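Hi team, as promised in this morning's meeting, here are the two structures we talked about. I've kept the exact order from the run log so nobody has to guess. The first one is mostly here for context; it's the second one we should focus on when we meet again. Sequence first, then the predicted structure tokens.
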Amino acid sequence: MSKKILIVGGVAAGASTAARLRRLDEEAEIVILEKGEYISFANCGLPYYVGGVIERRDELLVQTPQSMYARFRIDVRIKNEATKILREEKQVEIYNHLTDETYRENYDYLVLCPGSDPIVPPIEGVNAPNVFTVRNIPDSDMIKQYIYSQNPAHATVIGAGFIGLEMLEMLYGMGLKVSLVEASPQVIKPLDPDMASIVHYYLRQAGIDLKLNTAAQRFIGSGRVEKIILNNGELATDMVIMGVGVRPATALAAAADLEIGKTGGILVDEYLRTSDSYIYAAGDAVQVKNYITGQDTLVPLAGPANRQGWLIANNICGRSLPYKGVQGSSILKIGDLTVAVTGNNEYALNMANQPYLAVHTSPFSHATYYPGATQMHIKLLFDPDQGRILGAQIVGRDGVDKRIDVIATAIRAGLTVYDLQDLELAYAPPFSSAKDPVNLTAYAAANILNGDVEVVHWNKVDELLSNGAFLLDTRTQMEVKAGKVPYSYHIPVDNLRERISELPRDKDILVYCRTGLRSYIAARILKQSGYKAKNISGGYIMYQYINSDR
């Protein structure tokens, strides 16, 4: 007898579940219930539609109810909202917004893919007509219409996550002056503070009014927001984009007494079943496991949502495939800057009590003798015993996506930094270097593991100096004239052997250059000469970025 599957939510996870179900079972009755007007739309593309990069609205529609029926014979019901789950009867109560009617549908299996809801803090004036969220196509329509009809000169984005920064880029590109208001000390939570400082520097150089450690307390104005009262001042503005974040949409599941996890997401097992074996859940609404640490987490990303939907369809059809966890691989474009992460940052590793080491490198996107090479900054986190890769963050212009995907794949495969050294990656001068940035970073990490060099990070330098360490600058005289770290002693690396006697033998010597390569060479010279040397990871360039935040 054919199965009947009801799917609540028709965007990433829901549409993926439905399409895979049909490919596996031609006889199944599949119904998608979507409370909104659209299914399977590219919500990650909404900021680019607002900014005009994506010109036509229908380009955001991956599938429509008509195309889903034509190709898959799936019954898609838009403007039909699941309002109650009756688990004992295996029924769902549904409200049809088009006909103002309530009805019920039976199911053999129910799949919950309700997504997430934007977090809108209870700020006075937040419901003003020029305060917007960006979660669906109608939201983006309203923003576009407001910009083109009202011609605002200034916009404020509240929240510096991925959506907030993408909207900032689009608004800035449309000619608006933009302020970015973020309550925490940094943008992009998955980045470590040192890597976030690179983004801060870029935004300020671009003319963005970046307000960190700043919270909106009230929106005031006559009929619309004209001014924002902040915890540390006030800000005049013509429109506000709320990009504070999202929370799992769990109301339907909670009302049905399905278990909710400690993170606030729907609790599922490794096969994505809820506490009711006939009900599955996927996407932004579910609590999942971190692939590396095993910690419970929420990761509202389209890639994992699609994968989870695909797995649920397989499991309903008897193929029994587990979901192995999420590693949070994501990427962001801000102007000509690219920011990418995979795996865990330092905060997540500390929360999981996972020991780690870190290394910074600043390689170029391709061979520097070929025109157009740009510098990227890589931070690699790895296990101090075996060198297993735990996470990576990359900020740069060209080639960032290629390198983060290599490292993301390495994490999934359980590779170590030694394995990354061995990777044979494609090389030609327009695309890479003979020693790819991934290889180069792996060599730097392996040097630490092998005891060839001891590194220290800038956040520890002041403490070490106060305890008597000696700071050595190994750059050229010209570089030093352009700027130096206070109290540092200068000996160019090429003169170090001849001037080594100038250095104290009874102190830790902290060595830096521009990016860390020359100081590594200097540290090796010093170590083999009986000195206690530590290389400062990231070099002077990282010092500049971090110092720009102070």
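And here is the second protein, the one for discussion:
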Amino acid sequence: MIYRQLSDGRRRARRLIVLLALVCAFVWVAPASAAVITPVASCQSLATLDLSGNDAEVLTAQVTQLEQHSYCDVTGIISPQTHFDVVLPTATWQGDYLQQGCGGFCGLNAGSQSVNLVDPSRTSLNQASWAPLLNGELVVGADDQGHRAATNSDALWAKNDPQLRVVFGYTSEHSMLMVAKALTRAFYGRGPAYTYFDGVSDGGHEALDLAQRYPGDFNGILAGAPANNWAALVGVDETWQVRANMDPSGHQILTSEKLPALHAAVVRACGDSQGVIRDPRACTFDPASIECPQGTDTPQCLTPAQVTMVRREYRGPTTASGQSLYDGGEPYGSELGWDGWLVQPASDPAAPLDTAAGGLATNYLKYAAYWFNPPNSFTIRNFPFTIAAARALEPLGGIYDATNPDLRAFGAHGGKLIIYHGWADMAIPPQTSLDYYSAVIRFMGGYAATQTFSRLYMIPGLYHCPCGRLGGGDPETHPQFMDQLAAWVERGQPPAAVTFPVTHSTSANPPSAITVTPLNPLANVPHNHGLNSNYHYVLKGLVYSPEHQLWCQQAGPRLVCSRRVM
């Protein structure tokens, strides 16, 4: 007993010594708190900074207060007409740069290039805030992607200007970074230590473009719900979303009033005990299960025409013989997000052409989809859902698409990439990200190889943006991966499971949080008779290959394009 007591005491002493040693070691290796980097030039001096080497010029430079911090706010223009905004902290910068993406066709109006210091992606409306951004620790930049327009669904700017198509397609964000770095060096006497890009939707398309085409630009890239298969997405899928809901007279078949009952039926059929649809590909819900009794039509059921329409939306664009013309369709669980995106209330006589999908599809096909535009009389009702029609969009897809799976240069540079997508995204089918990341895995030599520099997260219940009228998802979460991305880039900590609090749910027994882990899209793929399963996208081999990428430059009045970097 005495020996045991002495031994226990020695063990306790040893443990205490080890603990103290670890504490001392931790204190010794812990880095000092980041020092604030102060300007070496005045904000006013940036107004006359020579940016001719970047084909740019400053329009204004003035000190302003944003989110309770002082910034030098610099606006300007990059040739031919990209308007930019860069804000540089006057007393709180800690050395890094964040560039923010855009949404839709971008453009918007005279203030559209302005940065957002609350949402790190600028346009998603659904990301949680990021402390370093709120605390004024970052230089932040954004632009209008090469043009200004009345709304971000307007593509008239592209009708007769091939060069603006290239700027929108892939050059704007690289040019923006070069200008932001020049301004940072002029203001602080040094450039940023780490550069980050965060974008959602079109911003996610920009993000993947940067990783593929300009692999040395950014240390960390966050691509949310990326619209990377752009030509097929806007030209085929969003056209289908509208046309599937259009009767022979051009009016909508399904109206917003039917969505709550449809969504509730899907959750009952496919949700777990907390009302969460973990993977819509595993769902086998048939809309006919809530078909109205003959001769009736109430908000609680679907008419036969609506059953057919809903099936077509879940399956996505197909040829007359059933061949898939895009990566997926409307995912099970996205139904409440259809409101405003592809359906409108019954009282709206202009629907479905006045939906968000209708505006994007119409503008793209009329003004930006082809080298030679269709006649002014063209409408989306003229688009045929054939393989030939889908292929006819791909020559310009080489400019707009960000589908190159070759990320060797990005990984070799040390870049880190996080892609995330909502399983209930009603605007960009989640299968898009699954197909792209699958192509990356195959090209890069397997899943383990891709994990050295990238992650894919799929978030149950999450809608797009949100772009509908009823919140950001069911369950609603506010994802934000900038903390994980920065930890990976700056401290070598690869992200694993990430948990997001649930802010709203239609379930009577909702979860308090949703946890997501990195997904291997080639593993455990559900195969069943459900409408979200067993896709065979006919242009997958063409689109998701390095050879699809097109590089263009202006040569006098002509645009010269090649499959090689120019």
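Starting points for discussion:
The chain has three domains: 1-30, 40-152+161-192, 201-217+224-494+503-566.
The two ends are 82 Å apart (CA to CA).
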